[in-house]
Automatic annotation (TrEMBL):
One of its GO terms (molecular function) is RNA binding. The keyword RNA-binding applies. It comes from Trifolium subterraneum (Subterranean clover). It comes from the Eukaryota. InterPro entries: Exosome-assoc_fac/DNA_repair (IPR011082), Sas10/Utp3/C1D (IPR007146). Belongs to the C1D family. This is Nuclear nucleic acid-binding protein C1D. Plays a role in the recruitment of the exosome to pre-rRNA to mediate the 3'-5' end processing of the 5.8S rRNA. One of its GO terms (biological process) is regulation of gene expression. The lineage of its organism: Eukaryota, Viridiplantae, Streptophyta, Embryophyta, Tracheophyta. It is found in: Cytoplasm; Nucleus, Nucleolus; Nucleus. Signal peptide: none annotated. Keywords: Cytoplasm, DNA-binding, Nucleus, RNA-binding, rRNA processing. Monomer and homodimer. GO terms for cellular component: cytoplasm; exosome (RNase complex); nucleolus.
Length: 185
């Protein structure tokens, strides 16, 4: 801890003092306006707003909270970019871009759009064609089913045996290694 008589001999640059005074002024201003803003984030009040305005209000509240937390980290000497909180900032940036791209629709237009989306999801019309992952899974399962009888019954290249190898089923617990049951044809 620094003693008061040691601080008397230290000179603080004028630019640092100006920055600190400006920050103090902004914090005092925020302190006076924050209760009013938080009262406007009441869930009952927000539920009465149109969807786009509600989304923008909630985004603004999230942005304010994130900015305050980011300021707290900086005041403690922690770089917010190196903090796990960075993912939250990235998520907010993504939300901001999405909100900016949304058209300015009326409440009825939003409801129509939501109803169409829900109808498409219920009837399975969301995607007309299967995704590439589903195609690969379908192909792999078909290939597996086609090859399965040949592998089990000693298809091409087999020495004529009806089954290639014995199937070993271990019914013992980890303690008993000598009770392996071998099933042969």
């Amino acid at each position: 801890m620094v003693k008061s008589n040691e601080l008397e001999n230290v000179t603080v640059p004028e630019s640092t003092l100006e920055t600190l005074n400006r920050t103090l002024y902004n914090v005092e201003q925020l302190e006076s306006e924050l209760p009013e803003f938080l009262s406007n984030s009441d869930p009952d009040l927000l539920s009465q707003l149109p969807l786009l305005q509600r989304a923008q209000s909630l985004f603004t509240l999230a942005k304010l909270t994130s900015t305050l937390f980011q300021l707290k980290l900086k005041c403690r000497g922690i770089n917010p970019i190196d903090h796990p909180f960075k993912t939250e900032l990235d998520r907010l940036s993504l939300c901001q871009r999405k909100l900016e791209r949304l058209p300015n629709l009326t409440e009825e237009q939003w409801q129509d759009m939501l109803e169409k989306k829900m109808y498409q999801e219920q009837t399975g019309q969301k995607r007309k064609y299967p995704s590439s992952e589903e195609q690969f899974e379908e192909y792999d399962s078909k290939e597996f089913v086609e090859k399965l009888p040949g592998e089990l019954l000693g298809g091409a290249g087999s020495s004529g045996n009806s089954i290639k190898d014995a199937i070993i089923i271990d019914l013992s617990s980890d303690d008993d290694d000598d009770d392996d049951e071998v099933i042969t044809p």
